[in-house]
Amino acid sequence: MDIIDVFLHPKSVAVIGASKKHTKGGYRITTNLVTNNYKGKVYLVNPNADGKLYDLEFKKSILDIEGDVDIAIFYVPNRFIPDLLKDCIKKGVKGAIIEASG
Fold first, then answer.
1. pLDDT in tens, 3-62
2. In 3-state terms, what secondary structure has residue 84?
3. Taking burial as the number of CB atoms within 10 A of a residue's CB, which of 10, 25, 37, 72 is the most buried?
4. Residues 6+ positions from 34 with CB-CB distance below 8 Å
């Protein structure tokens, strides 16, 4: 799988900053993935969230995910990006989409 294929046809996506709050980007991207028939695995990452959303369990860190992750989509404040990217590198994530804010 070449890099463009990873972005166009990921087999797994981690939403970093996933949220149960309807106004948050992490909620919207999760909803879009789940309700628009994305066929791959979806993982939710948020150290401050517990429980499940759309029957998907929240993980505290991308390093807590047991399976492979092709793409990480970030919806977090930009000050967290460097450390989260380091975790993604440790995990072996192939690509990242960053929607960071202030």
1. 899 999 999 999 999 999 999 999 999 999 999 989 999 999 999 999 999 999 999 999
2. helix
3. 72
4. 42, 54, 56
CA distance 76 to 102: 9
Pick the CATH number of 3-98 from 3.40.50.720, 3.90.78.10, 3.40.190.10, 3.30.70.660: 3.40.50.720
> What is the phi/psi pair of residue 27, to 5°?
-75, -45
Structure tokens, 76: 């977090």
Q: What is the pLDDT of residue 94?
A: 96
User: Whole-prediction pTM value?
Assistant: 0.93
Coil, strand or helix: which one is 31?
Answer: helix
Q: To which residue do tokens 């028939």 refer?
A: 37
**CA distance linking residue 85 with residue 30, whole number of Å:** 20
